[in-house]
Specification:
The structure holds three protein chains of three kinds.
Chain A: E1 3-12, E2 15-25, E3 30-35, H1 41-49, E4 56-61, E5 69-72, H2 84-93, H3 101-110, H4 126-138, E6 144-148, H5 156-173, E7 176-181, H6 184-188, E8 193-198, E9 201-207, H7 208-214, E10 216-223, E11 236-240, E12 243-247, H8 253-262, E13 267-274, H9 276-279
Parallel strand pairs in A: 3-7, 3-8, 5-6, 6-7
Antiparallel strand pairs in A: 1-2, 1-4, 8-9, 10-12, 10-13, 11-12
Helix pairs in contact in A: 2-3
Chain B: E1 2-10, H1 23-33, E2 35-47, E3 51-52, E4 56-63, E5 67-72, E6 76-79, E7 95-105, E8 108-117, E9 124-132, E10 137-145, E11 150-156, E12 167-175, H2 192-198, E13 200-216
Antiparallel strand pairs in B: 1-5, 2-4, 2-13, 4-5, 7-8, 8-9, 9-10, 10-11, 11-12, 12-13
Chain C: H1 2-14, H2 16-48, H3 51-54, E1 55-58, H4 64-97, H5 99-104, H6 110-144, E2 149-153, E3 155-159, H7 161-193, H8 196-215, H9 222-226, H10 228-231, H11 245-272
Antiparallel strand pairs in C: 2-3
The chains are: A alpha/beta, B mainly beta, C mainly alpha.
Amino acid sequence: MIISGHDLSKSYGNRRVLNQVSIDCAAGEICGLLGANGAGKTTLFKILFGLVTPDTGTVSINTNSNKKIGGIIEGPALYDYLNAYENLRIFGSIQGVDVSNSALQKCLSDVGLPLDRKDPVRNFSLGMKQRLGIAIALLNNPACLVLDEPFSGLDPLGVSALRKLIVDLAEQHQLAIILSSHIIEELSKICHTLYVIKDGKMVNKGPAQELITKNTTTYSICATNIETADSLKEYEVVFKGQCAHVSITADKVPELIHQLHQEKIYITSCTPELSMEKLFEINE
Amino acid sequence: MRIFLIALISLFCSSAFTQNADPDLISIKKRMDSIQQFSANLKLAVDISFINMPTKYATMNYTKGKPVQFASADFVMLPKRGLDFSLNRLLEYSYITVPRGEEIRRGKKHKAINIIPTDNRADFSIALVLIDVLNNRVAETEINTKKDGTYNLIMNYENNSKVLPSLVEVNFEIEKIKIPLNFMGKDTDIDRKKMKAEGKKTGKIYITVSNYVIKYI
Amino acid sequence: MKSLIKAEIYKLFRQSKTYYALASLFMIEAVILFSAYFQGKNILDILLENLKKSFYFEGSLLNGNLLVYLILNTLWFHLPLILMIIVSGTLTTEYKDRTIQTTLLQPVSKWKFITSKYIIAIGFTLLVVLFLAFTSFFLSYSLFGKGDLIVYLNTLNFFTAKDAFLRLQYAFVAGALSMVFFSVASLTIAVIFKEATKTWIISAFFLIFSNLLLKIDFGENIFNKIFFAKLNDTWQIFFNYTIDWSLVYTNASLLIGYILVFMGLGIYIFHKKDIG
């Protein structure tokens, strides 16, 4: 494990924000932290970064690099009155990294930012600011990257591009990456491991696909004349237009599709619907 | 160097009409009138309790019949009285002299004479002049001005033959300055009662005159 | 720490508000200069009224030296007000924009980060005072010339032009130390309150409070001598006829002590506090 947080707790006055939370992430692994707003995701990250001291518990980062951990908390925070190069230069110079023009150009191209923008960062879109934030986080080659709600506020194209960047960073640079979000679809596509946090407690964790499959109890199957299917009679079904929301476990789905095919009902899509209630039930 | 004129110290040569003026006084006056022109360096040292001023330097240029010229590189305060070495100001208008016997100053006897102007235009009411008869010059003058209080001038000379002084000590009355409470500078401790009680004070200014260059008629 | 200091200098001079502040200070100085000219006339008339009965005055006392002295009298209130806004802003802006988080996410030591801000605060303050000293001498002398300086401090003190120039320079140095004190205090206030408006209000209150305390006489006791508010008047000592150098050094040392205490307090609190 590159980064480990063990039994972390934090209270602010009478309010318990984190309760014995543990999280770890290995090199090349992308870990997702799923939780509603106010669940404790940001506080956990601040503790991992060392910005906030936990009441109990420890954080260990297993690396020899100068900069152990890089990341973004609550959105990218940049010097609005400086341009991308100048921001990189400021943050790079204070930690003694190479801030020559060629080095900065490499930083920008690594995150897919244009090299010819010399205007202040206040003119950048949110997606570009996120990328610049990641470029700054990557300065000095940290062993792990922690990103707090990186997809927040991005358009679909921006989300897609950022997702690709994160995957490339994990695969090519072998970074341990922890992401947080309150939207499962954003995490399910790229995370290897999923952690689910609710009211400051870790309620669920495991390999992402396994966890999703385990907690998916309904599939939305769409086909013409699906309402006439005999195979569906043994299941609990809600019909909406040309789709049937079927209460069924993942292992029985292939057989059902085969049966429908035999009835000459050709499905156009089969989408799992994750049960949030089940996912957020305590499963420790 | 700034050159300025003090028109009031116009050392005119003409003397006012008077009856039975003291002969020693007239003799000194004649001696003074023989000076056509002189220049000298002045060193001015102020000794007033509520004033701190460094020694100032100026040059003085007297030409008979013309206003006296002073020149100085910086700010100077010149006493209104005390630079009139020639007695001309006292004798400008008609006057009478009254002998007052003798007075001893610095262990020497001096002839004391009152000069009383008879013309209303004179700016003093009475003056007392102590004359060093032997050396034919003025040793001390006390002038009671009409508007500017009383002045006392003590002349010191380099040696017996000199008629122009090397050191003049001017004593005068001065009221302590009145200042409003809210004023520039530190908010000083202002004791109004004390200030009112103090009233008039005396001050001194020492004028050292040197490097005389004298041209006689 | 050198790289942190360089970064702070870079940030300070890349922000337009720094230049607005300098321009404002320069304009305030010019306004004070011209109002001082008219004020100076009245003051001189009052001061010299009685003396004029016995003396002729030659040479102008309403000169550049008097005007610089009058500038100094009001400068030590206006200047710290603006300085405190800029200096505290170097930290409160970082809190507001959360760049403080980004910075501390880099391998940068917390105490070094805040210390570099204090160093820049001190350096900037000294630079500003130097700028104002230079411009006030330049403007005053070129418009009103040099000459003797007259100052009333229980007695009427006259200083030759050369002596006055030297004393005025000493006064700027003493005043600079006071300004450093207020700048450091405002940064410490920013460490405690973090938010810009609150920090400005508390800093302004601190300045006004200090100025008010300056005028209260606490009597002949040690408090009157060592209380920080009283030390901000040290520059006036240079206009007593004889300069009490031991008092100057004592006051300066005490003020430096207060500066270090405020600075230490700010560094300690910042280091201990959680960020965010």
